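task queued by scheduler; priority normal; single chain, no ligands, no partner chains; default sampling; output format set to structure tokens
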Amino acid sequence: MSLEQRLQRMSEDNKQTLKAVMAELAADLDAKLELQAARIQHLERDYDQVLEDFTAVQERVKQLEERLESSQTCSTSAAKSDGSDRRLPSQAAPRGQWEQVLSRVSRLTDCKMQDQDLADQEARKKKEVNAVLRNFEQEEGETPDPLKEKVDTLLAENLETAIACVSAKRLQKGRSDAAQGIVIVQFEKKQHKIAMFKARGKLAGTTIGLDDDLTILQQQRKNAAWPAFKDFRSRGVKTQWRAEKLFVKEGEHFVEHKVLNL
């Protein structure tokens, strides 16, 4: 076997090894995300139960306060009539119970938020090499391999880049996905995705759109900023989306538009 053949064989072996490692890492990440999702569901059930207990205790405290106020009024009247100075029982017990429930709700809420943030961070790592194509025409009987070839053709001919994607998968969870022609494109490196986004201006004049592959939390934040985006656009203000963040042009620069409570 010649040296050139050996080098070619080593290159093929390295590719196969790399694919196997990437598949193993993807499977491990999926397992971690499923575990985090299960933990979040468990915490949500606990949170709902504690919230229900808290509401019941809150109502009970309100009733006790009303009874206490009524008793205090009667006792004050009685004390004035006989000249005595009788004191009412302390409210410390019900208030202490209420504070304990409040503390537990706070701890569960903090824990739930931490788990959500952790799950979101894991999901972002997985999605950071992905891009989303919209209005990408679907051919009848389309299969994954030809779809990847179509995306690679778009990258090479329309966007004039020297990159290729690792995979392309059409998202069809519902009728709206199919109607919008949504395709999830995965790259080997984040830099390849960035190169695609830098060339997105060459899609002008087509119906094809290009977005980041957002996590659930990111999509919620983008949805919250959407009314502001529509308002800016109706007033002719230039805007940019950078993942879930909305940027508005002020003078010569784009400045992030902050959404309250996010």
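post-processing summary
- Residues 79 and 85 are 6 Å apart (CA to CA).
- The chain is about 65% helix and 10% strand.
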